[in-house]
Structures are given as structure tokens and as C-alpha cells.
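Posting for a labmate who doesn't have an account.
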Amino acid sequence: SDTGVLVAEVVDDSPAARAGIRSGDVIVRLDDAEISVVEDLFAELREHKPGETVTLELKRDSETRTVDVTLGDQPER
């Protein structure tokens, strides 16, 4: 994909893992918003709170998938 955000790593038992997101997937849409660069993704995520469910459109290989993700708290670093 020419645009979107590449998922580099998925943490075990995270909301992303539970939704079926895999490393190598490319996020191209969050709800109704097109995601072209990582800043787009961060801006959209700031509009939501932990516990809310969002719909992501992903590209995996040559397929497009849609998954619902219930957002969690941001992990501490």
C-alpha cells in the first residue's frame, strides 16, 4: 500500500491482538477517517477514550479487512 500506517509489532493480549491485527498489516482507515500517515492515526485516536470501540480498515497482503478494536489504556514506557 502506498499510504497508511504499517503495524510493526502487536503486543500479546493487547486490544490489537484480540482484534486480530498482525504485524505487517497496514491501517488505512479509522472509522470514517482516512489514515495516510502515523500523525493521522494519532489525531484520530486522541478523539477517543479507553473502552470505546473503533473500526479499523486494514490491508493485509492483497486483501482489505475490517476489524473492531476496543481501545485500552496507553501502556507505560
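Reply:
Got it, the C-alpha cells are right above this. The longest helix spans residues 38-45.
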